[in-house]
Write a structure and sequence with these properties.
It is a single chain. This protein is 57% helix and 7% strand. By secondary structure, the protein is of the alpha+beta class. The protein folds into three domains: 48 residues, SH3 type barrels (Roll); 271 residues, no CATH class; 133 residues, no CATH class. A five-stranded antiparallel beta sheet has the order 4-3-2-1-5. Helix 19 packs antiparallel against helix 20. The longest helix has 30 residues. The chain is globular. It is a multi-pass membrane protein. Pathway: Steroid biosynthesis; cholesterol biosynthesis. This is Delta(14)-sterol reductase LBR. One of its GO terms (biological process) is cholesterol biosynthetic process.
């Protein structure tokens, strides 16, 4: 293989992805395996470029000056020779004046053309500025709330049209036009390089404690689920009252495993039904967009109808409560088998389809994080399917089973007020997620994380069996609350839901159409990627207002369980830790992606999740 051409620390000209613009960058490192240079732009953005997309400064300037200096002289000499032989030319003084005027205009026109091929629009209109914003592709102001860039493009179109007509009907000789086309062809050969195809490099920064941390979590996560469920079964679920370990044979039941597999297949059938719209996800590293069918809410309606039919024929959902631990073990075994399949198939996946965070080369780490970004069987997207369907809808079914179990065990004609609150709050959350299913396509789980043990176990085991912990707890430990307390908890949940939903809607609407007149009041900081960072509304209050709403709702779900034991509050404690960790991951990725624009955003919005606290 050829040796590297550019050294670390060398200042070169790097092409911006998806364009023909070259900017001054500094080489930071070189990947010997992928043969990619990691370069740093002046705004702090770091990207991986191929060697063909990098040029030395001397070569770049030499070619530019050569094309711009030689062209006018050749045109001038050619024009003077052809007109000296013309038999019908006008008076000498007048001819010289017109020739000089046309030469001056054409030279000026050519200079503008060459400059526009190498510089963004903002530099053309502000040539005296030389700051970081220019390299970041940003306008003069740091905050915007209009569509000035779109208007500018529309204003440029008539000028280009006039210019085309003038060139078409100009009085230049054909020889001059031919020379000009040759010059433009030479310039085009140099500038118009084919678009960059990003190839994922090896993962350098390992998360979750690296290889040791992920190895321990593969065992710690199932053990935590088993511990929580066994604690809820005890009469005294105190932390110091450790539950006795059950016999291994009692943890497995073939019937429970069969029912879980049937449940998974039923949701897969609902997913494949040709109902609901088909949308495209975000662009992948190779520029391709995957298609997704949005029919999660329809799957929920069909599931509710199926459960209603089972209840009509007196099918005992109480069985789910009696064998809850066995169902959790079955789900864990299924998720482990699925994770093994996902890793084995990822070994044959093309390089561009691997996850950016799960391509470390370490078996256990990639197995945990997920090696392949979007594993599919035909059009069936395994990660997207598991993200919302079996676990999230299963969570609602489990809550319903706990409600019926409470009524049967305690001989109640109606469920307790605490159980009604827990079921209602969590039902609203699930229905909202399925109704706004399209929003999940922009989350880190879909765009960045691969599909491995972490997401497979989380979607199929952690979500349905840990998130339903409050309902499971209330069956064995009934708690009585008064109506005023229930009303206060309901208000708290509504506040959290309002923050969560309005913040997410604000973000999603802005991502889909930033030029929407309804969003004209929103201010944002433009970035080099073309996206904007909102600095008004909820996103100007804290950096992650959706996380704040999530945590408030999690607290409201736990309060109906009373204050006798801390076990029902495991969810809110875990959720705070999860979102703080996820926020740290978001900060790291956004700083790398947006550079100085993210630093300005952090100065504008200093609080991460909790206002005036964190």
């Amino acid at each position: 293989m050829p040796s590297r051409k550019f050294a670390d620390g060398e200042v070169v000209m790097g092409r911006w992805p998806g364009s023909v613009l070259y900017y001054e960058v500094q080489v930071t490192r070189y990947d010997d395996v992928a043969h990619l240079y990691t370069v740093k732009y002046k705004d702090g953005t770091e990207l991986a470029l191929k060697e063909s997309d990098i040029r030395s400064q001397s070569s770049f300037k030499h070619r530019k000056s050569q094309s711009s200096s030689s062209s006018p002289s050749r045109r001038s000499s050619s024009r003077s020779r052809s007109r000296s032989r013309s038999p019908g030319r006008p008076a000498r003084g007048r001819r010289r004046s017109a020739s000089q005027s046309r030469e001056h205009k054409e030279d000026k026109k050519k200079t503008i053309q060459e400059t526009s091929l190498a510089l963004p629009v903002s530099v053309l209109f502000k040539p005296s500025e030389n700051n970081t914003k220019r390299y970041n592709g940003e306008p003069e102001s740091t905050e915007k709330n209009d569509t000035s860039c779109i208007i500018l493009e529309q204003k440029l179109k008539p000028d280009l049209e006039v210019k085309r007509v003038l060139e078409q009907y100009s009085l230049r000789s054909r020889k001059d036009d031919k020379k000009k086309e040759e010059i433009y062809s030479e310039k085009k050969t140099f500038v118009a390089v084919k678009p960059i195809e990003k190839v994922p490099t090896k993962t350098k920064e390992l998360e979750f404690g690296g290889r040791i941390g992920t190895f321990m979590m593969i065992f710690l996560l199932p053990a935590t689920v088993l511990y929580l469920l066994l604690m809820c079964k005890q009469d005294d679920p105190s932390l110091l009252n450790f539950p006795p370990l059950p016999a291994l044979e009692s943890l497995w039941e073939g019937k429970a495993f069969g029912i879980f597999v049937l449940w998974f297949l039923l949701q897969a059938v609902f997913y494949l039904l040709p109902i609901g719209k088909v949308v495209e996800g975000l662009p992948l590293s190779n520029g391709r967009r995957l298609q997704y069918r949005i029919n999660g809410f329809y799957a929920f309606i069909l599931t509710a109808a199926a459960i209603g039919v089972l209840l009509y024929f007196e099918f005992e959902l109480h069985y789910l409560y009696d064998h809850f631990v066995q169902f959790a073990v079955s789900a864990a075994a299924f998720s482990l088998a699925l994770s093994v399949y996902l890793y084995v198939r990822s070994l044959k996946a093309p390089e561009e389809e691997l996850a950016p965070g799960g391509n470390s080369g370490y078996l256990l780490y990639d197995f945990f994080i997920g090696h392949e970004l979007n594993p599919r069987i035909g059009s069936f997207d395994l990660k997207y399917f598991c993200e919302l369907r079996p676990g999230l809808i299963g969570w609602v079914v489990i809550n319903l089973a706990m409600l019926l179990a409470e009524m049967k065990i305690h001989n109640l004609s109606v469920p307790s007020l605490s159980m009604i609150l827990v079921n209602s709050f969590q039902l609203l959350y699930v229905v909202d997620a399925l109704w706004n299913e399209e929003a999940v396509l922009t989350t880190m789980d879909i765009t960045h994380d691969g599909f491995g043990f972490m997401l497979a176990f989380g979607d199929l085991v952690w979500v349905p069996f840990v998130y339903s912990l409050q309902a499971f707890y209330l069956v064995g430990h009934p708690t009585t609350i008064t109506w005023p307390i229930a009303a206060a908890i309901t208000v708290l949940n509504c506040v959290g839901y309002y923050i969560f939903r309005s913040a997410n809607s604000q973000k999603n609407n802005f991502r889909r159409n930033p030029a929407d007149p309804k969003l004209a009041n929103l201010k944002f900081i433009p970035t080099a990627t073309g996206k904007g960072l909102l600095v008004t509304g909820w996103w100007g209050f804290v950096r992650h207002p959706n996380y704040l709403g999530d945590i408030i709702m999690a607290l409201a779900w736990s309060l109906p369980c009373g204050f006798t034991h801390i076990l029902p509050y495991f969810y809110v404690i875990y959720f705070i830790c999860l979102l703080v960790h996820r926020e740290a991951r978001d900060e790291h990725h956004c700083k790398q992606k947006y550079g100085l624009a993210w630093e300005r955003y952090c100065q504008r919005v200093p609080y991460r999740i909790f206002p005036y606290i964190y």
